[in-house]
Amino acid sequence: MSNNIGNNIKCLIGAGILLLTGLTNSVFAKTANIGVSMVEFDTYLNVVRAEMTSVAKENNAKIQFEDAKSDVGKQLEHIENFINQKVDIIIIVPVDTQGLASILSRVKAANIPLIIVNRYPEVALPENVYYVGSKEIEAGRMQMEYIAQKLNGKGNVAILLGDLASEATRSRTQGVEEIAAKYPDIKIVDKQTAKFFRKEAMDVVSDWLLAGREINAIAANNDEMAIGASLAITQSGAHKDIIIGGIDATADAIAYLQRNLLSVTIFQDGKGQGSGAINIALKVLKGETVDKETWLPFKLVTPENISEYADKNR
User: Fold this and answer.
1) Which residues of 174-202 are buried (b: 16+ CB within 10 A; e: fewer)?
2) Strands, E, within 106-216: which ranges?
3) For 20-133+270-296, CATH number?
4) pLDDT category, 30, cuts 50, 70, 90?
């Protein structure tokens, strides 16, 4: 009799374990469904998006992308649509890193995990919310330190600012200004936004040149604006000795650096951010413990080491 009771207990325990395992992995009994809203489908984020697509496919996960076109309202609409579609997890590259309250409240109410990528939120990360990206202030510091060395510690620097709603703009600029302040003979003579776009940067720099501004170096918050600055300088037919720095190490920026049309860029690991976001999403859905924040380092890219980075953000 006692053996029968023991066997029955073992059977019940075994059945319980199987049930719990089934509940933990229930999301993988079907295809994991991931909704992604990005601030823009720009040059750098297209690298992130392509890697997300690749890793999701490798893991038999369904992934849907939406372009918010830098519109806070449009991104919130994406989140509401994902919730209505009952996706398993949501990933965003936020439009406004200071204005995430509406998104956070909606995903919390829907009990859907959220992963924020690339643009660090300027609020504490609530439960079930995670971040994958890089410390933006370090990019600005690295960029300006290189520029300062090329200037031999003396000269006028102008800064091309990105989207003013972005933490990356504020932190990268802070990094540039911190380093510039260490050099008494380096002056920040102008700061204007070009919203991370090439065409807007061309217009801003063209205006600087037409106004006769004495500028020895331009520190751009991203590569697209650095390329815009380079194009404006080339078209002006003058000031070809202006040092230009970008951030991201996009394929276009690498090409410009190879042709000596840019002086420096900072590698941001787009593929690492994309794969990291999907891998963390899948771990969260499996109930595994993951870090709240995942940081990927920036790397300095110069004419001397450009070959190491030529294909990394393609």
Assistant:
1) ebbbebbeebeebebebeebbbbbbebbb
2) 114-117, 129-133, 154-161, 185-193
3) 3.40.50.2300
4) low
